[in-house]
Amino acid sequence: MAATEYTKFTAQQIAQFFISKANESGEVMSLMKLLKLVYIAQGVHLVRSNGLPLFEDRICAWTYGPVVENLYHLYKRFGNGHIFDSEPLSVEVSNDTKVMYELQSVWKTFGKWTAIKLSNWTHEKDSPWDIVWNKQKGNAIKSAPIPNQIILNYFVKFVKKEDGSTSE
Fold first, then answer.
1. For the chain, give me the number of helices (H) and strands (E)?
2. Handedness of CA 161, 10, 41, 151 (dihedral sign)
3. What is the Cα–Cα distance from 40 to 71, expressed in whole angstroms?
4. Bigger pLDDT: 71 or 85?
């Protein structure tokens, strides 16, 4: 079966989790920070689910790093300010214990990072953004997609599999 048959969520549902966590904890959730956290969540899930994506929304290489394009357009009205979105967390997301564990892990590790620190991390040499933007000349293509396989290959270095074993 194709990976898309297993995808349960949209990037917006995943974003809502991080917006809710920021609002609960008093952290500032800017658009840049949100885009990076959702991207990281996709990377973590790709590793822990053996390559099945958390969401199908396209991640693109933009000047300031990986961007879930439709999320950018949905939340750009907030500019650089804090995203206040009153939509409740999706029941589907909150009822999926595996995904909630993954999202909680991403929040615990990266939630206190600033948008700039997250952006710098996503721009590191040999990151998926770097591969598409610089090595594959994505900077010459508007919204060059970052394939999930490239994201998976990168995140496997950082994420433990569900059984606790390292992914390398």
1. 8, 3
2. positive
3. 14
4. 71
Counting Cβ atoms within 10 Å, is residue 152 exposed (0-12), middle (13-18) or buried (19+)? Answer: buried
Cβ proximity of 73 and 9 under 8 Å:
no
Q: Residue 167 has what pLDDT?
A: 43
DSSP 42-71: HHHHHHHTTT--SB-SPEEEETTEEEEHHH
Could you tell me the end-to-end alpha-carbon distance of the chain, in angstroms, rounded to an integer? 25
Write the pLDDT tens digit of every residue in 93-111. 878 889 999 999 999 999 9
Q: Assign 88 a pLDDT band (cuts: 50, 70, 90).
A: low
| CA–CA separation, 58 and 144 (whole Å) | 10
Tell the burial category of 88 from Cβ atoms under 10 Å away from its Cβ (0-12, 13-18, 19+). Answer: exposed
Residue 28: phi, psi to the nearest 5?
-80, 130
